[in-house]
């Protein structure tokens, strides 16, 4: 038998190429064209919806919620709005918050909310805020509710206490004997130490990655400019909302109730 050698095609190509009919240009069927058109339209709709959604999303609110471990009644009541605020970092020019101790200075800190008390929130849904069902509640005859405090105002309280306890202010507040200074010195030391450490943790948790520049200053050389711009929450709105509820909660009587938890030591 006569076999063709390796490398030879199994089917001969010896036909005349010019005898083949010309190839017709490929055409899409109407069905394919319709499907392609529908796909383009749907993709345009999806892109439009995404762009519309992005424009409508309140990024301030999403950012404010994302950076909190739990929901908050403050966030539920008032949307977060970030605004640019320039810090007053001048080293020598004092303002009311860092002046020598006086009733006026204390009133300014009070206005910030440094001495706000507790507010009452409904018992239903409080687990969203990180509140344990066994925590302190108001007595049922006063409609119940959990007694809570906003952490931000506690931080202001602590900062104010550190201001009062500095050596050049201590004597003034010790003589007044109000608030934390009504306690014996060992307790006051514990209170101040608590405030130092809670502020340390807060500053580390919300670590500011902004940077300071420096200026050449006549007769002083190069000095840091602490007057920097920051994106800040709408603090005044939250202060006003909380102050109204703190005032309404004054005199609210809490009572140990069935299901409440009694801890063996201070948490």
TrEMBL record:
Pfam families referenced in this protein's UniProt entry, alphabetically: UstYa (PF11807)
| Organism name | Meristemomyces frigidus
Matches recorded under InterPro entries:
UstYa-like
**Spans traversing the lipid bilayer:** 32-51
What is the name of the protein in this document? Tat pathway signal sequence
Give the protein family: Belongs to the ustYa family.
Region (Disordered), start-end ranges: 1-23
What UniProt keywords apply to this chain's record, in alphabetical order? Membrane, Transmembrane, Transmembrane helix
This protein's source sits in the domain of life called Eukaryota
GO terms in the biological process aspect are: mycotoxin biosynthetic process
């Amino acid at each position: 038998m006569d076999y063709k050698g390796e490398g030879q095609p199994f089917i001969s190509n010896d036909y005349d190429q010019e005898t083949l009919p010309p190839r017709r240009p490929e055409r899409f069927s109407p069905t394919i064209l319709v499907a392609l058109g529908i796909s383009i339209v749907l993709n345009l709709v999806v892109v439009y919806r995404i762009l519309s959604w992005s424009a409508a999303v309140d990024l301030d609110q999403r950012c404010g919620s994302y950076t909190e471990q739990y929901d908050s009644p403050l966030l539920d009541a008032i949307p977060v709005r970030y605004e640019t605020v320039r810090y007053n970092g001048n080293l020598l020019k004092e303002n009311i918050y860092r002046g020598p101790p006086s009733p006026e200075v204390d009133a300014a800190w009070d206005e910030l909310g440094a001495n706000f008390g507790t507010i009452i929130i409904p018992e239903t849904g409080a687990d969203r805020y990180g509140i344990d069902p066994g925590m302190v509640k108001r007595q049922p005859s006063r409609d119940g509710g959990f007694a809570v405090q906003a952490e931000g105002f506690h931080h202001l309280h602590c900062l104010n206490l550190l201001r009062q306890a500095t050596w050049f202010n201590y004597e003034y507040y010790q003589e007044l004997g109000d608030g934390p200074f009504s306690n014996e010195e060992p307790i006051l030391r514990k209170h101040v130490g608590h405030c130092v450490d809670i502020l340390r943790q807060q500053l580390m948790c919300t670590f500011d990655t902004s940077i300071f520049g420096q200026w050449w200053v006549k007769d002083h050389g190069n000095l840091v400019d602490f007057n920097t711009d920051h994106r800040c929450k709408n603090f005044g709105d939250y202060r006003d909302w909380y102050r109204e509820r703190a005032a309404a909660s004054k005199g609210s009587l809490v009572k140990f109730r069935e299901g409440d938890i009694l801890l063996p030591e201070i948490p």
